[in-house]
Structures are given as C-alpha cells and as structure tokens.
C-alpha cells in the first residue's frame, strides 16, 4: 500500500487550479496542493515528493518571478521543476534565462487541457526516471561499498594472520636455545645427582615442563600459513578460454622461472619479464596486462616506489607485490598503497597461485562491473532521452570546461544556438508525436555535420546548442549556414505527412578578434537567436551583426 503520494504545487487563480485538477484525473498517483503564500511555497517545496510547481503570472497577491527566484535559491534548487502559465503573447525565449535551470518550461494562455496534460506527463515521466536512476545509483553504491568493505576486512585478516605467524615463529625461535640448555643441564643433573629421591622427583618435573614447552614451540611453528580466500572457494575468477597476459617485474631469472613453472596448468597465459623499473614502464606502455607481479628488490630501485607510481597512473591492472620473509611487513604496506595482494617468494606454489590469481581476477571483475554500471548511469543522466543528444545539464558542465581550456590556451571557442521557426504551431497542428519525430530526425541531421570534439546538446524544448572548441566565429558561421540549409531542404515525413521546416541560429564566440575574453557569450548567442527569429527566421545571426 502506497503511504506517500507525489504531488504538484500550484500557485495560480481558481480557473487554472480547476484545469490542473481536471488534468490530474489522468494521473491517479498525483495530487494537487494549492499554495496561498510565498512562505507556504518555500516550506512545501522541500517535500521530496514534489513533482512539479505550477506558477501563474496572473496572481495579484504575489510576484510569481520573485517566488520562482526564491525557490531556486533554496536547498532544493537543483531538483525543482517549474511550469509557468503566462498571458504574455510575445514572450521572449530568454525571459527565463535568469533561472538557469534545466527543468523550467512555460505555457502561453489560452490554456488548453490537452497541452497542460502533456506538460504534466513530461515532468511526471522525468520525475519517475530520476527516481529510477537514483535507486540504481544507490544499489550500485551499496555493492561497491560491500566489495570495498570485504576487501578491507581481508586486508585486516591477512595482516593479523601474518602478524601472528611472525610472532609465533619469532617466539618459537627464541625458545629453542633456552630449551636446549635446560634439556642439557637436566640430563647432566640426572647423571650426577642420584642420592636423594626428592631431588630426582623435582628434576623429573622440570624435564616434563621442558617437554611441554617443546610441544608448544612445535605447535607455534606449525600454525597454518594458508591465505584467506577473498570471495569464495571456487575458481570462477579464471576463464579457461581466455589467454591472459602477465608481467613479472623481477631481475632474477631463478625466481622468474619458479613463477613460470608454478603457473603451468593454472592459467593459459603469456608471462613476460621486466628486469628494471624502466623496462616495466616500456612493457606497460606497449601492451595491456591482466596481472602484474612486482618484486620488492630491483637493480635500479625499489619495487615499492614503482608500485606507488603505477597506482598513481590509474592503470586498472591488479598488482601483486612479491617479497621475502625478512620484508614481509612491506606486503601489508603494499596493499595499503594500492596492491591487490602480496606473495612471499618462499610460498610460491601451484596451490597458492591458483587461489591468489583466481581471487584477484574475481575481485577485479566485480569492481569493473560496478564501475561500468556507474558509468552507464552517469551517461544516462547526461543524455536527453528523446533525441539521444547531451542534455542541458551536460551542456552547462561542458561549457565551463571548454571556456577554461579556451582561456588557458588562448584557443577560440564558439557556440551555435539553434531553434525551429514556428515549432509550437507545428505541435498544435500536427500533435506532439509529430514534433518529437521532427526533433529526433533533426538531431540526427545535425550530428552528421559536427566533429568528434564538438558537443551537440538539447538546450530546451525545441532548442539545440552546439559547443565548437577551436572554432572561430567565421568557422562557426560556415557550419551554421550548412546546418540551416540542410534542415531547410529536408522533407520531414511522419505517417502520411510531409513537412518543410526552417530554423534560426544564433552564434557567439568566446574570443573576440582582438584576443580579449568576451563575457556572457551564452547570452549573446541567445540574443543573436532572438534577433534572427524576430527578423522572420530561417537565418543565421552573430553577435557582431
């Protein structure tokens, strides 16, 4: 049973609230809350179940744009979708630019039920998709944290186990010499002191204690040294059909041969040797590896220093640190600095490598799956579902990056702001499905003209924007004319309809001809676009026209 219900906040006169109520009959999971003051709006908008805020500029008691600015400056500013109802017949496209929000839209009166319903459906779908994405990210985050926690637990267990082994071995070794001395002295006493029965009894008790201590010493030396398995007892990490590439950074031919022989019948692989740090760099630069074994002692430096550098390079290759017993404590330190595990040379064997390689590959596979899923979610959040172009939020991120590069390297940067002429009339005449089909086809046409370094984004309803790095104003104008002509000559077909449409394009450049940085060049492109549409459309305008 659903306890909480998503809702739409409405700040509008009664005629609009009545129409909203009628539109919501299509959405049984949505409720309407009518707000009478700015204070109510500031409080209600904090509710996570708010799907949309509808504001009518005809309300007398409050300034609707002040309300919008107040809401957009609050703690939920990034998540507040707004729909303005306005009576301004000649509304400017950039009237809402001050809000700088992706989820802001408007409807010009007279207000029609089917149009209002379509707008609500759009925001409702966006709300549900956002919830789905958030849930996916949350689940992925849980998986990732579980893997990391398991990894940290294994590191701790391994550290404690090996610390116990070191302690037990050291303690057993320290006990050996005193025990031998005691045993020798007791033997001599038994030979020389045989007069009093009490003396013989106490000597026998001492000998029994020595024997018990010897047994304890043997048990300390026989503590199991088998490593803890990371994930499971099966060897699912190794794919028997795959040929792996393994690099062993080791200057000793003897230990390289030992590892090579131990790997036989465990894994199908090409094992390469790098004898020096520079040799390791060259091998990694020339080939991709699935695992790197890294020895602590190298002729030209420390394997530990190389580990830190390789970890900093973010190679996404698991590194197994190889050392000997005197330097075993470096193994734990290596794991703390990015190694997946460590291996003692004295313990290299078929069984130890089988468990080590399987658990390493299995763990790497899980981490890569989580990262891949996170990347897919991040990409979905940057894409517009209808056109498959980048969305407004992606544009805002990318434009900051590109302007920083342009400023640093003094490279030109231009943008094209594209809008269809009379697109709202198209929607009203032929329906929104036709409009959506036109947008999808136009997005595909525009992408055929751009380079791999350019970014084509859906800026708002029927507006596109193109980021053009290393492109001057003249170069951007040539591209704009080509796109305008291509769209203008294209016959858009939908069902039995054949439509001919035109577009207007505004252009702005981040660097002026004298090399000085322009300010507000996004607004300049929007102003140029507005000028182009006001002059009749089907034209390209620049900021210097």
Q: What would you note in describing this structure?
A:
The structure is a single chain. This protein is α/β, with parallel strands linked by helices. The chain is 51% helix and 17% strand. It contains 15 helices and 19 strands. The strands form 5 sheets. It has a 5-stranded parallel β-sheet, with helices on one face. A 5-stranded parallel β-sheet has the order 7-6-8-11-12, with helices on both faces. Helix 9 links the parallel strand 11 (319-323) and strand 12. Helix 12 packs across helix 13. The longest helix has 80 residues, at 113-192. It is elongated.
Distance between the termini: 61 Å
Number of beta strands: 19
Overall pLDDT: 79
Low-confidence stretches: 223-234, 512-517
The coarse overall form would be elongated
Strand order of the largest sheet: 2-1-3-4-5
What level of helicity do the residues show? 40-55%
Question: Strand-residue fraction?
Answer: 15-25%
Which secondary-structure class do the elements indicate?
alpha/beta
Query: How many helical elements?
Result: 15
Radius of gyration over C-alpha positions, nearest whole angstrom:
36 Å
Q: Main beta sheet: strand number and arrangement?
A: 5 strands, parallel
Notable characteristics:
15 helices; single chain; 545 residues; 51% helix; alpha/beta; elongated; 17% strand; 19 strands; 5-stranded parallel sheet
């Amino acid at each position: 049973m659903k306890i909480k219900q998503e809702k739409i906040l409405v700040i509008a006169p009664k005629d609009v609230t009545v129409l909203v109520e009628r539109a919501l009959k299509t959405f049984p999971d949505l409720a309407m809350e009518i707000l009478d003051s700015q204070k109510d709006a500031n409080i209600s908008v904090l509710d996570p179940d708010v799907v949309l805020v509808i504001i009518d500029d005809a309300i007398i008691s409050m300034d609707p744009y002040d309300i919008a600015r107040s809401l957009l400056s609050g703690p939920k500013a990034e998540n507040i979708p707004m729909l303005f109802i306005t009576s301004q017949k000649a509304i400017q496209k950039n009237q809402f630019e001050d809000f700088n929000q992706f989820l802001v839209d408007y409807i010009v009166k007279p207000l029609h039920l089917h149009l209002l319903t379509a707008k609500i459906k759009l925001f409702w779908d966006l709300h549900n998709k956002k919830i789905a994405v958030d849930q996916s990210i949350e689940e992925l985050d849980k998986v990732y944290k579980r893997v990391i926690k398991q990894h940290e637990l294994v590191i701790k267990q391994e550290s404690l186990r090996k610390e116990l082994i070191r302690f037990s071995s050291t303690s057993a070794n320290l006990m050996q010499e005193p025990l031998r001395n005691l045993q020798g002295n007791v033997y001599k006493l038994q030979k020389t002191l045989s007069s009093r029965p009490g003396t013989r009894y106490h000597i026998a008790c001492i000998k029994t204690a020595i024997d018990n201590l010897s047994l304890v010493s043997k048990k300390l030396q026989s503590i199991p040294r088998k490593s803890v398995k990371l994930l499971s007892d099966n060897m699912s990490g190794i794919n028997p059909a795959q040929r792996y590439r393994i690099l062993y950074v080791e200057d000793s031919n003897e230990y390289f041969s030992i590892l090579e022989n131990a790997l036989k019948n465990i894994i199908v692989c090409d094992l390469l040797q790098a004898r020096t740090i520079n040799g390791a760099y060259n091998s990694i630069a020339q080939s991709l590896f699935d695992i790197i074994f890294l020895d602590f002692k190298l002729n030209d430096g420390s394997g530990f220093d190389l580990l830190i550098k390789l970890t900093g390079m973010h190679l996404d290759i698991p590194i197994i640190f190889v050392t000997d017993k005197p330097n075993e404590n470096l193994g734990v330190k290596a794991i703390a600095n990015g190694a997946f595990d460590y291996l003692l040379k004295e313990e290299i064997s078929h069984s130890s490598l089988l468990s080590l390689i399987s658990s390493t590959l299995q763990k790497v596979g899980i981490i890569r799956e989580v990262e891949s899923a996170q990347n897919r979610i991040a990409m979905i959040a940057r894409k517009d579902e209808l056109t498959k172009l980048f969305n407004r939020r992606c544009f805002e991120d990318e434009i900051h990056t590109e302007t920083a590069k342009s400023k640093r390297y003094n490279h030109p940067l231009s943008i094209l702001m594209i809008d269809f002429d009379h697109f709202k009339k198209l929607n009203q005449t032929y329906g929104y499905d036709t409009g959506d089909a036109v947008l999808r086809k136009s997005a595909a046409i525009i992408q055929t003209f751009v380079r791999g370094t350019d970014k084509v984004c859906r800026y708002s309803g029927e507006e596109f924007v193109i980021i053009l790095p290393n492109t001057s104003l003249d170069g951007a104008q040539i591209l704009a004319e080509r796109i305008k002509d291509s769209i203008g000559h294209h016959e858009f077909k939908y069902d039995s309809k054949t439509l001919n449409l035109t577009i207007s394009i505004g252009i702005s450049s981040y660097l002026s001809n004298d090399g000085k940085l322009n300010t507000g060049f996004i607004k300049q492109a929007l102003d140029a676009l507005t000028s182009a549409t006001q002059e009749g459309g089907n034209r390209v305008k620049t900021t210097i026209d």
